[in-house]
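A further point concerns the way the authors explain their paired sequence and structure data. Nothing conveys this as quickly as seeing an actual entry. An entry of this sort, consisting of the sequence and the corresponding backbone structure tokens, reads as follows:
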Amino acid sequence: MRFSSRRRHQRAQALSCLGVLVLAVVVAFSLSACKSDTEKVTETVTQFMDGYDALVHPKDDGDKKDDEKSKDDGVPDPLFGDDATIAKLNEFGVESGEYHQHLLTHFSYQVGDVSVADDGKTATATVSITNATLSDAINNAASDFEAWMLTDEMQSTLDSGGRAALVDKLFDFLYQRLDGDDATCATTDATLTLTKGDGGAWTIDTPLPDEFYAALYGGTDIRTAEEAVAQ
């Protein structure tokens, strides 16, 4: 079978495009396949930690309404390990999302040493976390609130809004302490453990260790914070 010069040219173009496509797929596959377990663990931990950062620094979606804004692709929901605190805050009518956002005002992190076990099935990763010290913020806010309770404003606030208004005022003081440039911050290291699944993907083991939550709250033991909120 003979092809005209035009058809030969079209066939050559098609083969050329196909060749480029195949090459792109091969390169992409090679790059993915060449990643070491250490790199994959680092990526997994980074993605997990970005979930905390995204809560306080969400992507800018321009003029979209809140319910139209998309969630950051691939960023998991952050874990706070404070279910007892949140249950108590719900009783007080405090919005948990807002509470967590203020907790993370000064949040930053850095993934450090990553170690993969000889069998290639488990790994550990050290994360250095900087954040406001929650226990200091709570103590300072309590002092602010006690001083405010002696003012005329307290009585008028109580008369107009009742107990709920007093709770709102207390958390206003807490958020001011957490958000302030003079907030006490601490940098603390924590170690996460990970397990490789049958498909080769790495996942962070849960429940997360207490030392991670202590680092997340600026060196504050979460149980101490929960006791303070419950009082």
Notes: Residues 17-32, 66-72 have pLDDT under 50 and may be disordered.
